[in-house]
Amino acid sequence: KGRYEPSSSPIDFIPEEKDSTIKHIVLPLMNLRSKDKKETTHLQDELTIRFLTALLVDYEKQWYLGMIRRRTLYILIKSVEKAKHQHSLKLHWKLIVEHFRLSNWLQNLMRLDCVKWINKQSNKLLFDHIFLTIELTLVAFHSTQTRMDNIRKQFPELANIDKRIWNKVYEEIHFYHLTATYILLDLQQSYEACWRIHMTKRCAQMLLKYESKTITELYETGMLGHSVYSHILELIEKKSLKLEFYRVSMVKGYLTAIENPFDLLPLFRSLPNLEKTRWQMIMKANHRWFQPDQILLEKDQRVSTAYLITRGIVECKIDTMPIYYRLGNIIGIDALFSQDFLAHDTYRVSGGLLEAYCIDGILLNQFLKDENLAPSIYREIALHVLSNNYETRLKLNRLQLRLLVHKRAKFYWNESDILIQLKENQRLFILAGYVTHLFNGQNNKYESIQLQIFDTEAEILLNSSTVAYSWTDEDEDFSIKDTNPTVHFPLQTYDLLSNDLLYPGYLSQVTQFPKRQRSESLLDDGIHSSDV
Questions:
Q1: Could you name the CATH architecture of 406-478?
Q2: Distance (Å, rounded) from C-alpha 391 to C-alpha 411?
């Protein structure tokens, strides 16, 4: 059996090739079914290298088509080259995420928001940072799964690779693809103005590339004179340079590129203006930024601070499966509400930046005393307690529990000596206070926090301390059948960011544009100095 040597596996890169990116990657003849552990590792490493090389070619193609800036291309090239040396997709993602971090200088500048001029400058720099984050996430990994599928179709001999090797690489790519998609969805919803500016600029650059090709075709057919052709091409090139290297103007109708984080929170949206202003002043002192991969809560630790998410994603891995929390979720609120609970797991910032409000016990009590906010806060507490402690018993996943609590369960709060009738098998979740079960002339007291399921019909006496939820089997069935994925984090909506929209022409033959007449000028140091 022939020994596989990595040195015998050249990678040929042909810039002039007109076909799809993946055809630049030449696979050598090798024994693809080797069972030797060392050879298996070599095969996996070589497959990873070829995929990273395919990414590199795609990045250059996207820059050529006007989809990304040169600055972004340099970051991606540097990351891929380092990742290839380590045969690591994980390293490529890690190096990209490093560019999502806020610099210490910008963080300190943002703290001086009481000075109007400084606040204006920090907002500009933050806009540039978010703009780069969108561009890197959009390009780096969002379309990787499609690329992997195309590689498999273009090279049938890859079917001979041990499925375990292929699946391991494919699953890793799929993971980063989903992670990038979740971050993009959050960026799209959290920074609406910045997203629109980015997409407008992206489309404008691509249109200018297309116009350059069309003008050249008209010139070659004799429909345009040389002087007119040169003048139009010069105008297109100047506009392209401006779009690539200078700040983009604000979208008309937007006062600021970065919206106030408080205005994004559904919790305060329905409040009267005076109340909203009062809460905004209270919450301002608790506003914080958190860096990618920063740990918020450690598993099995006491919680003194919960986090109300306004922008970004928090990840919690339970049984190796990641659970994502975003806008409106309050991480750790169950353990903050009740000292009987510890942090359910380790919660960390996923991928990009996190913007959140810190909530301590004092602020939580203020929420619960406010008649407008208390129902929403209790609902969030109930959801976390049920998800973290009763999910297995109820046989509902977190998304179904959210739908149950938000849409189906009856909420009891501030009730004074009210008697309710529960049907057979009806559930009663006591979140705070206590209830009294009247049965055969006896009074059985049930303290919080607990979930009770009654075998027979029951009479329950509520009091002013009671905070509880009740629901039936039918409510649970409804939650199972009609779960709407948009209720929580839209895990099922990543196809809204389709490759056809973001990478036009990628899945078929890429339109060939003429070489740029003044491409040498893009290499001048003077131009790079103006790149923000």
A1: Sandwich (2.60)
A2: 19
